[in-house]
Write a structure and sequence with these properties.
Strand order of the largest sheet: 1-2-4-3
Shape: elongated
Structural class: alpha/beta
Strand content: 5-15%
Order of helices and strands: HEHEEEHH
Radius of gyration: 19 Å
Largest sheet: 4 strands, mixed
Amino acid sequence: MTKTSRIMIVIVMLTAASWGQSLFAVQVKGKQRWPAEEANHLYLSACSAVQQQFGGVHAIRPQVTLVLGADQDGAFWDTREIRLTKWNPYLFAEGVVIFAMGDLVKREQAGIARRAVMWSDSTVDIKETSK
């Protein structure tokens, strides 16, 4: 991660913490407690990890809703919800990674399709593929 990226993440985290807001929507059923600052940090960390692992020049910030007090744990694509029976940092990070990867694939989909069409029209000598 570059120095500029780290500085930007710190600025975003400090801004979000000072406003008392999270970087994603939250629904709490019952009297569940959850660490907002830790959740924001995990969200940014998971997004950065996906961006570093799979590339891309644009920041990945998937829109998700954290639902605490759900009947079951899971990531639900149709509603873009990460449902947790109780706060679990590992499951939350996994859910953010799932949505971040999905958004990254959507963003890159047009370029991948364009390359597939171009490559399908190209020919390569079989001798060159064995080098």
